[in-house]
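User: Please fill in residues for this 380-position structure.
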C-alpha cells in the first residue's frame, strides 16, 4: 500500500488539502500521513479542527516576526527528520508557501517523488506575489506529478518543459472545501450576526500581502473611506490580519470608522459563509479569487499582478492595484452601476466543480497502476 505524506503549514494550504486528505484517508488503496510546519499556528489550527485532521507530525515552527530565512532553514531541517521517520512513497505539497517549497526540496534531497496540488500558476514576475511566485516555480522544478487546476496552468507547465503525461488538470480543491463548508442556514457569532442583520450592503475586505505593506495599504484604505462617504448604505466587515504591519496601517488610516467593522481573523467556516452573505469582496488574497466567484460575488483584487488570470478573463475578478483612486473608482462602479455588478456576479467561475480531490485520488491510483486509465480532466 503506497504511503502518501501530505505536508502543509498555513490556513490556505490546509483548506485546499483537507478534501484531498479526506478522500485519501477514507480509501483502501493508500496509507495517508500528515505533517504540518505550522508556519501559521492559530489560523492553521482552526482548519485542522474544522476538517477533523490530526497531524502525525507537527513542527510548530511559528515565531513572532519570523523571517523567511529563519523559517526556511528550520522547516528544511524539521521536514528532513519527518521524512526520515515516515519514509513515504510520495510527498504531496500545495500551492506557493515557504512550506510548499521546502517540503518539495526536503523530499528531493531524500529522492522521494513529489506531487504538487495547484501546480502551474504563474505571474512571470518573481517579486509579485513575493515570495509566492518563486515558491511555486521552484516547487514545480522539483515536482513529479503536477495537479494543475486549469488548462491555463497546464499550458504554463508545458512551456516550462514538463511532460504532458505528468500533468493532470483537476480543478481547484478549494471549491471542494467551499461546497463542504457553506450552508444557507449558517449562524454566526452574535456580534457578527448583529452586523449582518442590519440593513444595507456588506463589503468583505482582507489585506495581508507583503508587497502591499506600507503606503500601498494606506492608499487602499483611503480609497475605501472615500467610497463610504458616498455610499451611505454600505458597511465593511474587515477581518484584520494579525501581522503588526497590517494592523498599524489599519489603525492609522481607518481608525474607528462607524461603518468599518474591524474584527479578528475568522475561522474558515464563518469566513466562507460570510463571503456568501456579502455583496462583493475587496482583497489582495490569492485563494479568495477562486472562492468568491463560486458564490456569485465579484472580487476586486488589490494587486498589480495575479497568478490566476482565468478569473480575470472570465470576468469574475478585476485586478485594480493599490492606488487610492483605483480603489475608489472600481468600488464606486460596482456599488452604483447595477449592470457592471451583475456582469461580474453572473460570470462563470473557471476554477472547479467540487470534484478536484476525486480527480487527484484517481490520478494517484493511475500513477501507482491501481487503475489502468487516467482521470477525465476538469473543463468548463
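Assistant: Residues filled in for all 380 positions:
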Amino acid at each position: 500500500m503506497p504511503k502518501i505524506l501530505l505536508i502543509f503549514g498555513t490556513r490556505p494550504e490546509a483548506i485546499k488539502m483537507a478534501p484531498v486528505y479526506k478522500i485519501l484517508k477514507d480509501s483502501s488503496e493508500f496509507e495517508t500521513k500528515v505533517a504540518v510546519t505550522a508556519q501559521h499556528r492559530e489560523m492553521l489550527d482552526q482548519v485542522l479542527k474544522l476538517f477533523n485532521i490530526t497531524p502525525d507530525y507537527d513542527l510548530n515552527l511559528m515565531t513572532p516576526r519570523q523571517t523567511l530565512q529563519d523559517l526556511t532553514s528550520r522547516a528544511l531541517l524539521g521536514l528532513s527528520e519527518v521524512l526520515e521517520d515516515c519514509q513515504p512513497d510520495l510527498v504531496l505539497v500545495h500551492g506557493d508557501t515557504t512550506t510548499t517549497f521546502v517540503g518539495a526540496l526536503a523530499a528531493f534531497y531524500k529522492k522521494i517523488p513529489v506531487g504538487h496540488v495547484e501546480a502551474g500558476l504563474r505571474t512571470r514576475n518573481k517579486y509579485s506575489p513575493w515570495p509566492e511566485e518563486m515558491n511555486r516555480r521552484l516547487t514545480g522544478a522539483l515536482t513529479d506529478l503536477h495537479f494543475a487546476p486549469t488548462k491555463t496552468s497546464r499550458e504554463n507547465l508545458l512551456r516550462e518543459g514538463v511532460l504532458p503525461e505528468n500533468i493532470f488538470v483537476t480543478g481547484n480543491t478549494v471549491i471542494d472545501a467551499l461546497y463542504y463548508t457553506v450552508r444557507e442556514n449558517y449562524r454566526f457569532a452574535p456580534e457578527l450576526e448583529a452586523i449582518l442583520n442590519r440593513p444595507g450592503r456588506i463589503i468583505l475586505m482582507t489585506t495581508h500581502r507583503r508587497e502591499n505593506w506600507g503606503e500601498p495599504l494606506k492608499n487602499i484604505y483611503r480609497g475605501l473611506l472615500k467610497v463610504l462617504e458616498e455610499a451611505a448604505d454600505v458597511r465593511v466587515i474587515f477581518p484584520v490580519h494579525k501581522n503588526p504591519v497590517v494592523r498599524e496601517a489599519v489603525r492609522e488610516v481607518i481608525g474607528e470608522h462607524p461603518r468599518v467593522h474591524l474584527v479578528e481573523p475568522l475561522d474558515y467556516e464563518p469566513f466562507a459563509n460570510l463571503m456568501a452573505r456579502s455583496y462583493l469582496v475587496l482583497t489582495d488574497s490569492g485563494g479568495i479569487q477562486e472562492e468568491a466567484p463560486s458564490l456569485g460575488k465579484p472580487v476586486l483584487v488589490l494587486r498589480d499582478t495575479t497568478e490566476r488570470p482565468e478569473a480575470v478573463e472570465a470576468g469574475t475578478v478585476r485586478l485594480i492595484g493599490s492606488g487610492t483612486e483605483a480603489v475608489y473608482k472600481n468600488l464606486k462602479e460596482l456599488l452604483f452601476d447595477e449592470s457592471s455588478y451583475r456582469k461580474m456576479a453572473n460570470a462563470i467561475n473557471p476554477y472547479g466543480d467540487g470534484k478536484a480531490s476525486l480527480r487527484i485520488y484517481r490520478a494517484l491510483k493511475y500513477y501507482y497502476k491501481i487503475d489502468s486509465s487516467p482521470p477525465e480532466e476538469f473543463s468548463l
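For context: The mean pLDDT is 95.
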